[in-house]
TrEMBL record:
It is an enzyme of class 3 (hydrolase). This is Arylsulfatase. Keywords: Glycoprotein, Hydrolase, Signal. It catalyses: an aryl sulfate + H2O = a phenol + sulfate + H(+). Residues 1-15 form the signal peptide.
């Protein structure tokens, strides 16, 4: 990658004119806008169908109280709509999470599991065929105009943005690598035009101007619209040592706009029980981390403050969007989503700034929706994930759900919320492959680059119900985690006691209880559920118990704990990896098929 040296001189010399935009709302050489509508020969769509604005921030935490510092977002979206208390990402890394969000599929079905090739990034997204089969194209076919600005995927660069162009948008303006995370040196690429450098301007302010232009275009159109807005804040800032060598870089604290640099001088990472604990926690590389010293903690507190400061420009943008919709008399007919691609940790479990773990800090994210039929101040306790958002947008748009969706639309109205409480599933399938790393000055590798930890490959299950609040994971190293978040909300006490040798996977040693249930009995059920979810597709991801119990008499962990199933679950195939891999390699994933209960004689049989 040659960076800006590859860009046309004329493009770089373009003046940046506030408010400048292509008022046509489309561009003639973009073939994807000519796709036939599924609505028939008459492509017109009633204008009163709801609009959709989707704000997707980068790396915003929920567990570290960042929402206390975004009053406009809370006032205009959360308090005027629904707050989803148990909303999770299924892969705690930006590119896999975004691809899952925009396709409605788990990462093991998209096969985009990393941020860079060969296992992830924009080239992998294209190679897997998703550029011809994803949400913006489906919405265009369904009668919507579609717009997008900001970050799309990692490895979407100044070199490959046109090989091919991202399909599905009437108009787009993407921020591109390797400048995506350079707050004061962003490079954006509009429609099919060459990239343009906005050096010296703050990336969120540039994004805000582009958002205003697209919003005006969308409101002037004759069809309902989808507008995706993806600021990079509060992601870390990228410092490149050499443009000709993209391996020479480091991440530092995000850079706020000048007007926000003085804010929150006394803010600190919340000192929760899992913040820099006296004893190590977790498994694998996490269990080997040293306790942070005073200098590290002070640095990370300032890192945290700059995250909060960087979010202020996003908070202002949210208010601007709402005001413009209101001024156009479109607010009452527009759904506004606000969420993050993954969570974030700083100091919890002795971790330096970063994500990629299965802890609550990394997988539980902010999620708010306001719009028609949603009562202000609604709180939703149902378990929801990013996999559910494409089906949700389909329902809003009046489109039939796709069989390939791995998720279920989230409840929006009071009646949907009530029904959800009766029959929605209780599980989240969490998965990760490859590497983990730290951001910031501390915890770096000996050469000064980002610290990298390999074999950060695990399958996990998050389960929340009236009876249970559990996290269970299996690592490629054969290590396990089991946390009861009812009694241990900070995930400090792994309840999976093990005996292990160098040649065999660990074996549970029952030594305690979770409520009235023996741990060994719970583990057999959790492991079986995870076995289904780790390879699920479509409705199996929504109703995994039916794969184990085809008769339909088991639909929850509580029901599966009936003692009559004890022998069945003790004989079940166990979740285990063949070996550690950096990406989704089926041969390394271990057993794929469960034993199925009920073969007609009251026993069970191998799944086929």
């Amino acid at each position: 990658m040659k960076g800006l040296s590859l860009l046309a001189v004329a493009a770089l010399a373009q003046a940046i004119t506030p408010g400048a935009r292509d008022t046509s709302g489309s561009f003639a050489d973009n073939e994807d806008v000519s796709r036939q509508s599924i609505l028939g020969e008459d492509h017109s769509v009633p204008k009163n169908r709801p609009n959709i604005v989707f704000i997707l921030v980068d790396d915003q935490d929920l567990q570290m109280d960042s929402l206390n510092y975004t009053p406009r977002t809370m006032r205009h979206i959360a308090e005027q709509g629904a707050i989803y208390r148990n909303h999770f990402v299924t892969t705690a890394l930006c590119c896999p999470s975004r691809v899952s969000l925009w396709t409605g599929k788990q990462a093991h079905n998209t096969n985009v599991t990393e941020i860079y090739p060969p296992y992830g990034g924009y080239p992998k997204f294209v190679a897997e065929g998703h550029n011809d089969n994803w949400l913006p194209l489906w919405l265009q076919d369904g009668g919507y105009d579609t717009y997008y600005t900001g970050k799309l995927f990692n490895a979407h660069t100044v070199d490959n943005y046109h090989t091919p162009f991202a399909n599905g948008f009437n108009a787009s303006d993407f921020v591109l690598d390797p400048y995506t995370y350079q707050y004061l040196r962003p490079v954006y690429q509009r429609n099919h035009d060459p990239p343009v450098s906005y050096e010296g301007q703050h990336t969120v302010d540039v994004l805000a101007e582009k958002t205003r232009g697209f919003l005006d275009d969308a409101l002037d159109g004759d069809r309902p619209f989808f507008l995706g807005i993806a600021p990079v804040a509060p992601h870390s800032n990228l410092e490149m040592g050499d443009e000709e060598d993209t391996t020479s870089f480091r991440f530092s604290a995000p850079i706020p706009a000048t007007r926000h640099q003085h804010l929150f001088p006394d803010a600190k990472v919340p000192r929760t029980p899992n913040f820099n604990p006296d004893h190590p926690s977790g498994v694998s590389w996490i269990s080997t981390l040293p306790q942070q010293n005073e200098s590290s903690i002070a640095y990370n507190d300032e890192f945290y403050r700059n995250r909060l400061r960087a979010l202020q420009a996003v908070d202002e943008l949210v208010e601007d969007i709402v005001q413009r919709l209101d001024d156009a008399n479109a607010l009452d007919n527009t759904y506004i989503f606000y969420t993050s691609d993954n969570g974030y940790h700083i100091g919890q479990h002795r971790l330096h700034p970063g994500k990629e773990c299965g802890f609550e800090e990394d997988i539980r994210v902010p999620m708010f929706v306001r719009g028609p039929g949603i009562s202000p101040g609604t709180e939703v306790d149902s378990v929801t994930t990013h996999i559910d958002l494409a089906p949700t947008i389909f329902r809003i748009a009046g489109l039939p759900p796709k069989d390939e969706f791995d998720g279920l639309a989230i409840p929006l109205t009071a009646s949907e919320i009530h029904q959800d409480q009766l029959d929605r599933h209780e599980h989240v399938n969490v998965e990760y492959w490859g590497k983990a790393g730290f951001e910031g000055a501390f915890g770096r590798a000996p050469d000064g680059g980002p610290a990298t930890f390999y074999n950060n490959t695990y399958k996990a299950l998050r389960l929340i119900s009236p009876d249970f609040n559990l996290y269970y994971s299996v690592w490629c190293s054969h290590e396990h985690q089991l946390y009861d978040l009812t009694t241990d909300p900070y995930q400090l006490h792994n309840l999976y006691p093990i005996t292990t040798t160098n040649s065999t996977p660990p074996t549970p040693t029952p030594s305690t209880m979770i409520g009235p249930h023996q741990i060994e009995k719970l583990i057999t059920r959790l492991d079986a559920l995870l076995l289904i979810l780790k390879s699920c597709q479509g409705t199996t991801c929504i109703h995994p118990w039916r794969e184990l119990h085809p008769a339909g008499d088991v639909n929850s962990l509580r029901e599966a704990l009936d003692e009559k199933f004890d022998a069945f679950y003790n004989a079940q195939v166990k979740v285990r990896f063949g070996w550690c891999e950096l990406g989704y390699i089926l041969e390394a994933e271990g057993g794929q098929g469960p034993v199925v209960y009920g073969d007609g004689d009251g026993g069970w049989s191998e799944w086929v």
